[in-house]
Amino acid sequence: MNTTASHQAPTFPPISTSPGVGFGWAVRDTMAMVWRNLTMLRRVPQLLVFALVQPLIFVFMFRYVFGGAINSGSAGVPYVDYLMPGIFVQTVTFGAINTAVGLAEDKNKGLLERLKSLPMSRSAVLGGRVLADTARDVVIVVLMLNIGFLVGFNTHTNVVKVIGGVGLMVLFGFAICWIFAVIGLSVSNGEAAQAAAFPLLAPLTFASNAFVPTASMPDWLAWWADRQPLSVTVRGVRALMLGTEPTDYVWGSIIWSLAITLVLAPIAVRRFRNS
Amino acid sequence: MSPIAIEADGLRKTFKDVVAVDHISLAVPRGSVLGLLGVNGAGKTTMVRMLTTVLKPDSGKGLVNGFDVVHQQQAVRRSIGLAGQYAAVDENLTGRENLVLVGRLNHMAKPAARERSTELLDQFRLTDAADRPVRTYSGGMRRRLDLGAALVTHPPILFLDEPTTGLDPSSRLDLWAVIEGLVSDGTTVLLTTQYLEEADRLADNIVVIDGGLVVAEGTAKQLKSRLGDTVIEFEFRSPADAAHAADVLGSVTSAGTIVRVVMSEGPNTLREALNRLETAGLVPGHVALREPTLDDVFLTLTGSASGDPS
Across chain B, how many H-helices and E-strands are there? Predict the structure, then answer.
């Protein structure tokens, strides 16, 4: 140390040598990141409106343009009731693009690098992102539910089951966010994330029973459209909100969501650590 | 407390087939400033990323504040501040919110984080803009905020990765003054730069790296003395004349229309040079004497030009 610098003893705080981040701090770090990610929505509320544009177009097209020509496939169930659970699940699925774009932008701007140099919990960065996007899903689903009521959607069960249906799609949205976390960490910026998302979303949302019954599809397509996770979730939501499907699909959807999360979350975490 | 704040011993990092850092060792005494100098792609940022625990080295050892960068990552993170070349602040948060967030993620209590943020905003002349979203800030303001974010916890060791790249000259001078202030308070700084002027002004010691290897190290004075004494600089009207003159003079370096000759034998060198030019029928448009700069060192060592400081 040179002599000119030592005329005043530097007063730096002592450094703790404890190796990890305690559970309490991990929770607080995650909450801090959730707050940070949601601030964008509070500050730019138009983003929420933009998020509703696409589902509204789908509601208009399928409810009023194509709807008259489509049969719900269940006696006594108007097409609008069949359609809306599909729209809801499609909305949370597309909403997960936000996770990919958010993470890719944070990476691109060097923010992930700064966060990695802080003594914060490693899992809080991804956890904070996914939980914030899940909270956003809840808001959007509730708005869409009300829009559904405006265009004539009716539930045929009870309040508890309808809330259960909301919970089922939010859980599914949470799981899909982990897929998009992996995508967001694998591309270089927000636009690339957006471009990478669509080819994945199209077969999931359109080759499904979200808008039309699978009975009219060719066998090979119907095979996929009946089994893939989005269809299973839509059927689960119909089971809870309309009572037209067996409750097996509720469990099927929960299993799909948990399986996707258990496989993709560790991959996302590894990708974050190594990026 | 170890007298060495930052120590690297044979650090190495490869990305697929590209060797980013081949084998770099360096030591930064407490309270001093090390300038890590190199062109883009020399391995400067990779070095910083390894020493700040952002990236795990393939081999070699790094100690920061006495803590191992691989096995004691949390202690290293609590010891450092990092400000990067991208001004890593959140555009949608206000300046104040950015600082408080970094304080919270450093596990400071909320009131302490708030108090410290106010202090830093004041120190960096951002008080008026404190509650505006960062996306309304100028480049210089962002950099100041970014540096402020690195200082929230009063870290004893600071890593600055090209802190002034892309800044206008007055913002650069501004940031230099801030860094000098931190150093006079005892902070240890490792600074990467492509600007020799910056290293010359701020760094006690300089390590020049190229292709992931150390090619020279020492104080600015020592590095300059490698090139000997004063240099005579002749400027010609055309590159062809300059090339001809370089031939006649046996010049050390030439670039464009400028030819430099080391004044190894005092005034006699100048007389000799002018005689030779006259014999060859070459008339320089301009003649100047100057002390060797780090630019000369850099050119000689790496064979490529450094970034232009303005």
Answer: 11, 14
CB contact under 8 A, A119 and B74: yes
**Containing H/E element for A203?**
helix A190-205
Does residue B68 belong to the interface with chain A, where contact is any CB pair within 8 Å? no
- For residues A208 and A217, give the distance between their C-alpha atoms in angstroms, rounded to a whole number: 10
pTM above 0.90, yes or no: no
Q: Which two tokens stand for residue A169?
A: 């799609």
Residue A161 covered by a domain = yes
- Tens of pLDDT along chain A (275 residues) come to 444 444 444 567 778 877 778 888 999 999 999 999 999 888 888 888 888 888 999 888 888 888 777 877 776 788 899 999 999 999 999 999 999 999 999 999 889 989 999 999 988 999 999 999 999 999 999 999 999 999 999 998 999 999 999 999 999 999 999 999 999 999 988 888 888 888 888 888 888 888 888 888 899 999 988 889 999 999 999 999 998 889 999 999 999 999 999 999 999 999 998 77
Smallest Cα distance from B161 to chain A, Å: 12
Contacts of B104 in chain A (CB under 8 A): 28-29, 32
Q: Which domains does chain B have, with CATH numbers?
A: 4-217 (3.40.50.300), 228-291 (3.30.70.920)
CB-nearest partner of B186 from A10, A16, A17? A10
Q: In this complex, which of B89, B106, B154 lies closest to A12 when CB atoms are compared? A: B154
Q: Find the domain containing A193 and state its range.
A: 24-38+50-64+78-274
What's the total number of domains in chain A?
1
Residue B102 makes CB contacts below 8 A (sequence gap 6+) with: A114, A118, B149, B152
The amino acid occupying position A170 is V
Q: Cβ–Cβ of B84/A113 closer than 8 Å?
A: yes
ipTM of the complex: 0.85
Structure tokens belonging to residue B2: 């170890």
